[in-house]
Amino acid sequence: MNNLQPGRAPVYEMLEQYRLKGNISYHVPGHKNGEAYRNTGGAGYLADVMRYDATEITGTDDLHHPEGVIQEAQELAADCFGAEESFFLVGGSTAGNFALILTVCYEPGMLLILQRNVHKSVIHGLMLAGAHAVFLEPQMDPGSGLAVAPAAETVQAALAAYPQAAAVLVTMPNYYGMGSDLAPLAQACHDSGIPLLVDEAHGAHYGQHPALPAGALACGADGVVQSTHKMLTALTMGAMLHVQGPWLDRALLRQRLAMVQSSSPSYPVMASLDLARRLLHSQRAGAFTAGLAAVDVLRRGLASLPRFQLLQPAGPLQRTCGDADAAEADTPPQRGAAYRTQDPFKAVIYDAAGVLGGFELQRRLEERGIVPEMSDDRHVVLAFSLGSKAEDAAVLLEALRDIAAQTACGVPQTEVTEAACYSGAKYAAGSGSALDEAAGAGLVAASSPIAESQSDRSSMTILASASYNIGEEVMSAFSSPNSTWNNFSASLISAPVRFSTKPVAAEETESITLEASAGRVAAEMVIPYPPGIPLLYPGEIITESICGRLGSLRDGGAKFQACADPALQHIKVYNIQKGGEV
C-alpha cells in the first residue's frame, strides 16, 4: 500500500476516461453505451448510467483477479477503513456474509456460533454451507426491550461447550443503531483460536468521527462486512468486506467471493464504492459535519417537544473498544450493559405518551412526505447520513409537531383512549414500578425453542443459572415484544441446528390460519422486512407467544418475506401425520 493517494478514485476515474474516449464497442453489454435506445425515444435517466456501464476489457481490470484500478481502489479502501485487505462487493452485504460463512464452514457439518437474531442472508449462508448453528441469545436493553448482541460470558460458555466451532458471528450495530463492546467477544474468539465475524452492514461509517462508535475492526474483529450503500454514500448493492489478522484463509475467501458474486460485476456500483471511499478518505471527520448538524437540529427540537423521545443508552455515549468494558466482561450484565453505544445517525423515536405505536407514527409521517427507514410496534427508525440536511430535519420536526397536536391526549381520535394517554405519560415520567423493578434484570424473553436441534439437549440449559430471565409482568412494562428485530428463544445457548438447502416436501405440509398454528411446527421461514430477521425457521415450534407476536406484527402493518402468504393470514406447518404436532 505504498504511495497511496487518498484523493484518487481509480475505478471512477477510469470510467470517466472510458466515456470520454468514445471507443466503438464490439463487446458486451448489448445496449452499446445506450445507443440501442437511440431510435426508440432514448433510455431516459438511465442513458447517463449506460455510458459508464463497462465490462472487463483492456484497462478496466477484473474484480475477481484485480491487478490495476480495482486493486488500487481496494487497497485505498483498506487504508481508509483500517483493514489489512478489503474487497468490493457488488451484491451487498449478503455476498460478504455468504463468503465469510462458506470460508469458515468449508465443508458440510461444520459448526458456527452466532446470535439468534441474524439477518436472513446469514441463515441462507448457513444453508449453502450445510453448517450446524449454535444460536446465542442476545442481551436485551431493559429500557427499550430491544435485543443487541450476546454477552461475552455467553460467547465464552458456548466456545467451551463447542470447542469444534469454526467461528463466532454477531451483528453490530443492530438495525436501530444500538451496540455493545465487541472487544471481549474478539478476545474470547482469539483465545479459542477462531475468528470473530461481524455483520456491520449498518456501521460502515463507524470509527470515522469522534461522535461515532468504534468500528468492529478496531475492536479486534477478523472479518467485517459493511453495506457502504446504507450509511455511507455508495449506490445500492455497493458493500465491502474487510479482513485482518491470521484467522481467515484469504485464498479460500477470494475463491468464495468469486463463487457468490457475479462474473459480470457492475462497474457503476464499483465506481460508487470508490467515490464513497474517496469522500471519506479525503474529508475524514469533516465529511460528517452537515449530517451531524441535521441530527442536532432534530435533538434540539425534540427537547421542546417531549411527546416524542429519542432512544439512547443510559450511560455515556461511544466508549472505546476494550478498556473499562473489557475489565467488566466477567461480571453479570447490569442495567444498560447490553446497550452501550448508539449511532447518532440512527434517530430512533417513539411516542412517550404511548398514544401512537411505531407503525401508525410511520404512516402519519409518510402522509406528510417524511419516509422513515422502518418501524416496529413502538419505534420509528429515521436514518440520517452524510447527505442529510438541517432544513430537512426542520421539516421533520414540523411534521412531528403537527402529529402531536392532532393526537394530543384528550382530543377525540381513532382507537386512542384516555387510559392509554395516562399510562403512557406515567411510563414517560419513569414512575412505573415495573420499570424500576427491572433495573439490573436480564437478558431474554421466552419464545420458541429450536425444533430441529440434535437429540442431545443438555446444552439447552447451559448457563441456566445466569440467564437473568425476567418475569412476564415486569417485562411487559418496557419491552417491545412485537419488534421486528427481536428474535428470542428459551435459552441462552441452543443445541446445534442443522441447515441445508433440502426443500421441505409439499406432501409433508399444510396451510392453516395463523391463529390456529400454536403448537404446530413451522414448515417455512417467516421474515418481517425490514429488517430481514427471521422470526420462525422451518422445523421450529410455534408457541402461543410467537403466534400472538406474529399476529400483532401482521395487524400492525409489518411486511413479510419467505412465507407462502405474505399477508400472513395463513402459515405453512408440518402436517400431523408427519409428526408436525407436539
TrEMBL record:
Organism of this sequence: Paenibacillus phytohabitans
Please state which protein family the record places this protein in: Belongs to the Orn/Lys/Arg decarboxylase class-I family.
* Cofactor(s) needed: pyridoxal 5'-phosphate
Does Lyase count among this protein's keywords?
yes
Protein name according to UniProt: Aminotransferase class I/II-fold pyridoxal phosphate-dependent enzyme
Q: Which UniProt keywords apply?
A: Aminotransferase, Decarboxylase, Lyase, Pyridoxal phosphate, Transferase
Q: Which segments does the entry list as coiled coil?
A: none
Domain Orn/Lys/Arg decarboxylase C-terminal residues, every copy:
503-544
Q: Which Pfam families match?
A: OKR_DC_1, OKR_DC_1_C
Q: Which GO terms describe its molecular function?
A: transaminase activity
Q: What InterPro entries does this protein's entry cite?
A: Orn/Lys/Arg_deCO2ase_major_dom, Orn_Lys_Arg_decarboxylase-I, Prn/Lys/Arg_de-COase_C, Prn/Lys/Arg_de-COase_C_sf, PyrdxlP-dep_Trfase, PyrdxlP-dep_Trfase_major
Residue span(s) of domain Orn/Lys/Arg decarboxylases family 1 pyridoxal-P attachment site: 10-391
Q: Which domain of life is it from?
A: Bacteria
